[in-house]
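Q: Can someone sanity-check these two? First one:
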Amino acid sequence: MGIVIGDKVIIKDNVMIFQQVTFGSHGKKGLIKNYPTIEDGVKIYAGAKIIGGITIGKNAIIGANAVVNIDVPADCVAVGIPCKIIQKFG
């Protein structure tokens, strides 16, 4: 419910997306638009914003309301505005 997905976003298999998540480009006028790639097994919690030509690694977790504008490595947790990588697990 209320999920926004830009036209060139890549979302791979077994991704869990909660409500009010946005996937999009940077939105800057005159620049080439770049969209995120979401790898297998990612969990993205409510209200997160995933912006730009970044990659969210396999099995990563994106916390609620996080604003993600950097790559998130596989098996890591990202939280905050702007996001910070706080944990590696697995």
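And here is the second, same format, sequence then tokens:
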Amino acid sequence: MSRPLIAKQKSLSPVIVIAHRGASGLRPEHTIAGYTLAIEQGADFIEPDLVLTKDDVFVARHENDITDTTDVAKHAEFADRKTSKTIDGTKHVGWFTEDFTLAELKTLRAKERLPLLRPDNVQYDGQFEVPTLAEVIALAKQHKVGIYPETKHPSYFAGIGHPMEARLVAELKAAGWDSADAPVFVQSFEVDNLKRLNGMTSVRLIQLLDASGGPADKATPSYAAMITPAGLKAVAAYAYGIGPGKAMVADGTLIAAAHAAGLRVHPWTFRAENYFLPARLWSGVNPRAHGRVEEEIRQAIDHGVDGYFTDFPALGVAARAAAAKDQ
């Protein structure tokens, strides 16, 4: 069966490749090694998810629950830190960054979060530290790429006495980044967090969206309400763009609507494994095997995305190059 023709749209900005948590398909996520590999593979931006330590230092972890991304469970000295917390309405049992100082976190080592899907990455378990935002910024500056930090659970952190906004703005300003042309995007699934940042910095802000549910801060009733014409207009009042789940841009409709509101569109996350791909793009039947993710990315480019997150930056760069050749 031939692929249906796609009505091509133009992006509003040059298309950027964003290394999702680094080259996380090839190295444990949120490690300097993973970010470095992503840069070597041609990523324009590296993405650190940001959480805070007990002593208010930003570190790069997908969640403040570090049970699945570090070897903390093997550290007998931290056994009594294991606890239960409810974060954004979901109960978690494990170890949490806000209960550790930076010095304590630096004794831990990263491990692969998806060992069943990415068994080759397990060989790197135990080799890499948990990086700070300062270390990620230094790496980005050294290699002249941008950063695309996400504030994780900002209302939760504010509720336990660790507000993020002023600390983040201060760290970006210290790096010389406080303008709309700085090599920075700050993203969040929450709304009020971004609105506060909009009043504190001129760096570009991205409102993350999902296909279901709504912001944890309850600032709007649902993500669905945010992608209506009125909702997108409201987002454009404080954000530079949106970051929807990739399924939300599959037919190009949301991209066109966002562009009409003056918003850029950076969908997440393009991954090579069959497990993450639509059935039509699978190669074979093994969920771990790599399918035709370049084709999925090409479709998004044809629909007019302004950038995209990928766990495999080299494939993302190759797809962009192929699309440029066809134009």
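A (reply): Looked at the second one. The chain has one domain: 18-64+130-326. Residues 18-64+130-326 form a domain with the TIM Barrel fold (CATH 3.20.20.190).
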